[in-house]
Amino acid sequence: MSKPPEFIPLSDAAVRAVAGTSSRHAALIEDALDVLVETPGGGVALSGDSKARASAKQVINALAERADAGHEVAEADVRVAIGQARTGSGKAPGGLPTGKRGQVVPKTPGQARYLQALANCELVFGLGPAGTGKTFLAVAHGAGLLLRGEVDRLIVSRPAVEAGERLGFLPGDLSEKVDPYMAPVWEALTDILGAEQFRRRREKGEIEVVPIAFMRGRTLSHAFVIVDEAQNTSRLQMKMVLTRLGEGARMAVTGDPTQIDLVNPTDSGLAHAVSLLEGVQGVGVNRFTVEDVVRHPMVERIVRAYDADAAKRGRTM
Question: Are 276 and 90 in contact (CB under 8 A)?
């Protein structure tokens, strides 16, 4: 004999958020968790086995909490909640700062797994296509650590491949030389911290830009280090920068292995490092897919088209 549906009382706003336009959100929950979601009025009725209903209830409560707080509930939020329920991760890792567009939160299950890895591992590799948030979320996580005093410095390094790392030939001081290559990171930090706090912390040395070529010989202690565009580091550069970690330091290495700008792409240190270090204690590897693209719908379509072409040609991207 089947069990009667479990009724979860919710506000009208929460019911609308769980159902979604044309019941799209409810359909996603049903398909993912093998339950039946009905909205008879005043709440949600759940049918299914005990384990499935428990997972679905977690999803519904997460969406209801967001709706009751006055936030929009989009399809991406539903997918994140489903992913968290499936993996048993509960809420996404806390401690992320509030940017000018509101609280920084993961928008896809892949982003949620990435933030979980950043919270749990000393060294995290974030691999994937453009628009998946791998750099922005690493910056947000590092900014949160800095604001809470868990690290003393936030250090960002990015290879200046276009300049051949010969930065001495460019005009201006070090910051002026490398700023064109760091623009995406500076934009993220400005969005998260605000222009004034970003400027003040940078002047105090709490936020530092260090080109890959200038990392040699340093020991980075009590810092959160981000190595961005890491697919454009050589194998020697990657080994050098990974071994800069000192006491109390953590590192995020982000990159897209399909976007290598080196003269000799086989010398890229990113895939090589992952092949050596995946599975090592304290190392996390998060691979983003086209489903994690959150920048613009066109970016997802572009990535899919290139992936299809690579598959047709028999290449591994």
Answer: no
Q: Name which of 140, 129, 139, 137 is nearest 288 in CA terms.
A: 129
- What kind of fold does domain 6-87 have according to CATH? Ribosomal Protein S8; Chain: A, domain 1 (3.30.1370)
The DSSP secondary-structure symbol of 5 reads P
- The reply to whether 107-313 shares the fold of 6-87 is no
Alpha helix positions (H), 128-173: 134-147
Quick one: DSSP state of residue 21?
G
Residue type, 82: I
CA 232 from centroid of its chain's CA atoms: 20
Residue-range domain boundaries for the chain: 6-87, 107-313
- Between CA 131 and CA 191 the distance in angstroms is 16
Q: For tokens 């509960």, what's the residue?
A: 90
pLDDT digit string, tens, across residues 107-139: 887 888 898 899 889 999 999 988 898 999 999
Token digits of residue 68: 């009751």
What is the pTM assigned to this prediction? Answer: 0.68
Please check whether residue 247 is in contact with residue 211, taking contact to mean a CB–CB distance below 8 angstroms.
no
Instruction: Reduce the DSSP state of residue 278 to 3 states and report it.
Output: coil
pLDDT tens for 135-170 read: 999 999 999 899 888 899 999 988 865 444 444 444
CATH domain 107-313 topology: Rossmann fold (3.40.50)
Distant-in-sequence, close-in-space partners of 115: CB < 8 Å, separation ≥ 6: 92, 93, 96, 106, 137, 141
Phi-psi region at 44: left, alpha or beta (left = phi > 0; alpha = psi -120 to 50): beta
